[in-house]
Amino acid sequence: MLQFPAWKILLILGTLVWGVVMALPSVVDMSGAPGFIPKKGVNLGLDLQGGVYLMMEIDEAEVAANRLEVFAIDVRGALGRSGDKKRIGHLSKVRDGALFVEMTKAGANGDYPVDEAIERIRKVNPTLQGAIGGAKMFEIAEAGRNIVRISVPAAANEAIMKDALGKTMTIVRRRVDPDGVSEVSITPQGVSRIILEAPGEADPQRLKDLLSRDGKMTFNLVESSPIEIEQAQRGVVKPGYSLLSGPGVGDLLVRDIPEIFGSDIATASQGNDESNRPKIDFRLNSSGARKFYDTTLKNSGKRFAIVLDDVIMSAPNINEPIPGGSVQITGDFSITEAQDLAAIIEAGEMPAKVQFLDQRTVSATLGEDSIRAGMRASIIGLILVAVFMILAYGLMGCFTVASLAFNIVLLLGALSGLGATLTLPGIAGIILTIGMAVDANVLVFERIREEQRSGRSPVTAVQAGYERALSTILDANITTFIAAIVLYLLGSGPVKGFAVTLAIGIITSVFTAFVVTRWFTSIYLKAFRPKKLAI
Amino acid sequence: MLLKFWPAKTDVKFMSFRTIGMICSVLLIAASAFFLSTRGLNFGVDFAGGTVMELEESETVTVQGVRSAMPISADVNSAVGTDTRSIIVVKFGEADGDLLGEAFQALTPEQQVERASGATNEMVTRVLKEKFGLQDSAFLRNDSVGPKVSGELFRKGITALGVALVLMLVYIWFRFEWQFSVGAVAALSHDVFITLGVFSFLQMEFNLTTIAALLTIIGYSMNDTVVVFDRVREEKRRYKKMADREVINLALNSTLSRTLLTSGTTLLALLAIFFLGGPVLRGMSFALIWGVLIGTYSSIFIASAIVLLLGMDLNKKPADDAPGFQSAS
Known about the structure:
The structure holds two protein chains of two kinds.
Chain A: H1 6-27, E1 43-44, H2 46-49, E2 51-58, H3 60-78, E3 90-95, E4 98-103, H4 114-124, E5 139-142, E6 147-151, H5 154-176, E7 185-189, E8 193-199, H6 204-211, E9 217-223, H7 226-233, E10 241-246, E11 250-255, E12 260-261, E13 265-272, E14 278-284, H8 286-298, E15 303-308, E16 311-314, E17 326-330, H9 335-347, E18 354-362, H10 364-393, H11 395-417, E19 421-422, H12 424-453, H13 458-490, H14 494-528
Parallel strand pairs in A: 1-19
Antiparallel strand pairs in A: 2-8, 2-18, 3-4, 4-6, 5-6, 7-8, 9-11, 9-12, 9-15, 10-11, 13-14, 14-17, 15-16
Helix pairs in contact in A: 1-11, 3-5, 5-9, 10-11, 10-12, 11-12, 11-14, 12-13, 12-14, 13-14
Chain B: H1 18-38, E1 42-43, H2 45-48, E2 50-56, H3 63-69, E3 75-79, E4 87-92, H4 101-105, H5 109-132, E5 139-145, H6 147-175, H7 178-202, E6 205-206, H8 208-238, H9 244-254, H10 256-276, H11 282-310
Parallel strand pairs in B: 1-6
Antiparallel strand pairs in B: 2-4, 2-5, 3-4
Helix pairs in contact in B: 1-7, 6-7, 6-8, 7-8, 7-11, 8-9, 8-11, 10-11
């Protein structure tokens, strides 16, 4: 128990050096240090640095419905005329989580061509990616003498949700952090949730506004006939058109089928016009630019509307064909609004709207207060415990205090090394560790005292003390460790931070108490060969 | 050092007081049950849903002012602040749909249920910003939790407590005997239940951090109990003829100075958090301080007393050491 071969001592010293190197950046600015030394300190949780936490959910039903809307276009194609196949007249509608295709024309014998329709729709039914045995994405079945019902089976729903969650995460990132420079963290949770953590952000409303928009951008032609607009305003809208409006353009009758889609846009950014007012510039990709040129060529003299989420952003006249695919929107924007709109346009359309389930904001000032209070409590706690231990155990108490300092360095080093996040409850976890780290030492010292009392020499007493205390120390710490693991697995946010520090603290405190203090004691025993341990 | 003044051998007849201990515990449990059923727990937004805001108090922003400016009914109180600022806590539930604007009313009924607390938060934040000319930074904290998440957090919290208790039961069973595991888990449940009772009696806010504190109490109390049990097993093997009651007394006495020292250092550290750690940690450190006290008490008067009640049969298999850890050299 008291033999420390050279390799063990090297290992202990190595661990200590590692702890110091890893812990240093959390305490002092290391930016001037050579390259191989880590410069990043421990991550601070949102409760310590301030920021916004948002938990959002995408609606499963809406995702499925949107996917069915997209499939409805394929169905229209499949039932249309092609080659020797005749067109099957139909109406389609998404309702109650399924797409209903209703045949409108009966054949000569009065029957509807349901079977043929099903067969033709089956041909365009996409294969489910990653599914075994070529399973299809949609379930297609007859649901009445002239109705086909298309629904999403559970397996496909899962795949669609996974896809939607991934897409939404990408869009969330592009909207919130268009330049990819901020420290925003976006993590999935379960099948339908996303957690966004934005350190340093003070306004949850801005983030919510950015994220709650669909981001559906289209270019549509405008029907300019004043009679049609007047009729539409009275409630009789020309079929295939919708009455939309927007700031500065008033009511316009807009064609439902767009000429250019959001997916045709390559980039969007905020710029300034001649009079230095913010505007939004965007560039179409090559196929979008070609479509745009064709449209402007064919519809010279008409107006087109740039529509974002059913609001007309701008409705310029087409004076001449426009090549190059570069478009701009001017309007009454602030710089931030123009930047946010550009981010929304460039990021593209959300698969479904997100709902905010949980939002938390902590201001940076409160975070600073918490750090200061936590640091002060830690230092005072440490001093109290140190004084108490030295008073109780004298020299052995000093060994404990030294290994306690070692413990804190290791704990801090391990936290930054593992990339763990320190939260305010996490600081409480460190302080609790300080209190409890002493326990293992106390268990050993009490044993040594007993052994000494029964007449053993210091060396054998220390030896026996460590041997007999080991199983108790392990038992006692494993139970606390179990509690920490449960906390980690089932806790969230700051509580998880607490569990991490508690768990790491248990490991480092058992190591320091059982190895480091023992090493100090063995050095002392060898150097001074005391007749009796003052303990 | 100081410990020299601590008698080398104490001889407190702990088990003679076990009836008194049991009576105290039963009374405490009954009182806890009474408060929990009449007053219930004061759930924070984590578990109850709704919104809690913390505003920095100033000459213009006062408790009275905020109270009268609130567009819906709310609890507005001043709270224990930090060194440099006083804090006003504003707590409220959900406003009626017609106060929340057209966008909200356009949602489906299910979506409205989920969005209500967030939308109410937006509305109230806007009103307060306008009325007092506040910046974002004036809101020190601004949390809203919808019913779906708060329900889940509560279920998860309770599950965590249950899972931790079962794991402890299994671990102790594996390391000792079933009597010990019954005693340990009874002591843990006792600690958790009475702590809940205290939270109900004082109407302190019960939130996620409180669950973390309860789990830590479980860990700490277990730690204490295991140390005593280890000693009981050891003494029982050494003194095979000795009555269980004496064995337990002996074990408790020989671990007494360790129990007091460890509780003492942990309490010192926790008191530092309680008084100096700022308002956010006060509830948690209170629970932990209480937990250390009750955990120490329960390992003597509940865990050990139950083992005495159920009897041990360690003697029947003297050669068969408990599985597990051998001392390393």
